[in-house]
């Protein structure tokens, strides 16, 4: 996208749009998508009838393999991509009929860094707010709040190109919050940053959500989604293949995997435990898959009888990753091959 042109047009439109009624904002879903379809000029269907609701105040994950339709969906919701059919509303404001008012409710953090690297963070935030009609004095006050929340206040007057990758990502979030959006959309916000920086960003996002902002997150870090989000939808090849509360969806998994750290060395022959799969990950680690309903005490008893003493245990893999692979794994390669390049939202 071209930031200046998009922001300028959005600003002009926003200034003329009537504000939606407060009662409507309170009662309606933060995002409501109905039978959304998108067919590109090459006749590839990127979205094939997507429907979902995001409740106000939610922290919602939108997951899917590359080419599944995530960025196309975000592009349509943020009015950067034209839909082919269906409807989108933001807090009850129909996107097609009242685009300007709907856009005033959204903050967007795209995948790609799209600010001027030769501007200072303070100027980036204040100028962005100015595009949306925020008076300069108020914009300066908000910029201080957002830069402090992003731990960038001490960098406010440095050239943005000198910031680290993680700082630039946090600057993108701070910029999006300058208009105090009711709905914040984050498209791969922690891509390419190390785990320490990522966890710091998680804290910031939790604070933003706790203050009342609804957040929609796309991410390839499934541990991130499981840690942050309460509800999710998984999209694959242009269709929603699963959606609902995170805990309820993870509870559908009927198999759990654990790694057991063993005192001493594992015997050459492992015991047989009906319904489980035991493998030696190495001489001191036992890899076990077992039904969720199985009593762990039974497993430990059989291992004890075989002279195997468990020192500690840990979950073998991220549960959300297991669910994701089950739902999308067979089609992921085909999806990536057939889908057109998605626009950067």
UniProtKB/TrEMBL annotation:
This is ABC transporter ATP-binding protein. Keywords: ATP-binding, Nucleotide-binding, Signal, Transport. Residues 31-262 form the ABC transporter domain. One of its GO terms (molecular function) is ATP binding. Residues 1-21 form the signal peptide. InterPro entries: AAA+_ATPase, ABC_transporter-like_ATP-bd, ABC_transporter-like_CS, ABC_transporter_ATP-binding, P-loop_NTPase. PROSITE patterns: ABC_TRANSPORTER_1, ABC_TRANSPORTER_2. The keyword Hydrolase does not apply. The keyword Nucleotide-binding applies.
């Amino acid at each position: 996208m071209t930031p200046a042109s998009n922001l300028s047009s959005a600003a002009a439109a926003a200034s003329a749009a009537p504000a939606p009624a407060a009662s409507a904002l309170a009662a309606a879903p933060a995002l409501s998508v109905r039978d959304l379809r998108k067919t590109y000029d090459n006749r590839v269907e990127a979205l094939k009838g997507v429907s979902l609701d995001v409740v106000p105040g939610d922290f919602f994950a939108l997951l899917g393999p590359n080419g599944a339709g995530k960025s196309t969906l975000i592009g349509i919701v943020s009015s950067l991509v034209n839909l082919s059919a269906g409807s989108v509303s933001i807090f009850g404001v129909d996107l097609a009929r009242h685009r300007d008012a709907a856009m005033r409710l959204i903050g967007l953090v795209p995948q790609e860094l799209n600010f001027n690297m030769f501007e200072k963070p303070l100027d980036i935030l204040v100028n962005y707010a100015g595009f949306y009609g925020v008076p300069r004095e108020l914009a300066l006050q908000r910029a201080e709040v957002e830069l402090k929340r992003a731990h960038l206040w001490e960098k406010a007057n440095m050239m943005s190109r000198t910031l680290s990758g993680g700082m630039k990502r946090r600057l993108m979030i701070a910029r999006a919050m300058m208009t105090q959006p009711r709905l914040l959309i984050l498209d791969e916000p922690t891509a390419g940053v190390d785990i320490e920086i990522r966890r710091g960003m998680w804290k910031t996002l939790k604070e933003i959500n706790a203050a009342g902002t609804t957040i929609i997150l796309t991410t390839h870090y499934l541990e991130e989604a499981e840690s942050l989000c309460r509800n999710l939808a998984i999209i694959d090849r242009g269709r929603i293949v699963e959606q609902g509360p995170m805990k309820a969806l993870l509870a559908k998994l009927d198999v759990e995997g654990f790694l057991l750290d063993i005192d001493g060395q594992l015997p050459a022959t492992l015991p047989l435990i009906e319904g489980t799969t035991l493998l030696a990950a190495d001489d001191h680690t036992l890899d076990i898959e077992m039904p969720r309903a199985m009593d762990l005490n039974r497993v430990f008893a059989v291992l004890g009888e075989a002279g195997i003493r468990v020192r500690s245990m840990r979950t073998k893999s991220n549960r959300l990753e297991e669910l994701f692979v089950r739902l999308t794994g067979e089609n992921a390669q085909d999806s990536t091959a057939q889908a057109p390049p998605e626009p950067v939202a």
